[in-house]
Amino acid sequence: MGLDRELTPLLRGSINPSTGVYLVFDARSGRELHEFIGDHFVWSPDASRVASLGNVPHFSALEAKADSLEIDGTRVYPLLNDRERHWFRSEPTWSANSRSVAIVDHRQTDGSLWLIVASADGHYSDYKLPWQIPLGEWPPERDVSIRWDRPRIVVQYAGRTQVVSVSAGARK
Question: Beta strand 86-88 with 50-53: parallel, antiparallel or unpaired?
Fold first, then answer.
């Protein structure tokens, strides 16, 4: 995307209780550069990309609610044909080099937690975490924290810590 944070004021609003609109403008011309739909918008450390959670319709049935991760407005996880219900339990967290985003996914079929590491090119890797938790209420609590310690990611949940070594290869 190549946006310069110094030249780009931002405006954030809401369409409905669960969907935000994030507008990026050119400070010199006032021209709108991008419009993102979703929630939990996070700039990469080098201010070149925006990660966010995709739109989850507020008034849809609980069984239909599933999170997705987007980078620059493009879905990178899960794949469109994925039928699992994904509820994210952490905030999207960028790597220091602005190449990858990590998030913790709570898969609803078995209650397992997975660390997802996605790149802007749409590739991702997933790492099963040692915790399982029961299905809760929507929206899910963001009660898992992530900290990058390259080439590892430190994941904390309920006073417990898991360190995951992140491999260079990713799958789609």
Answer: unpaired
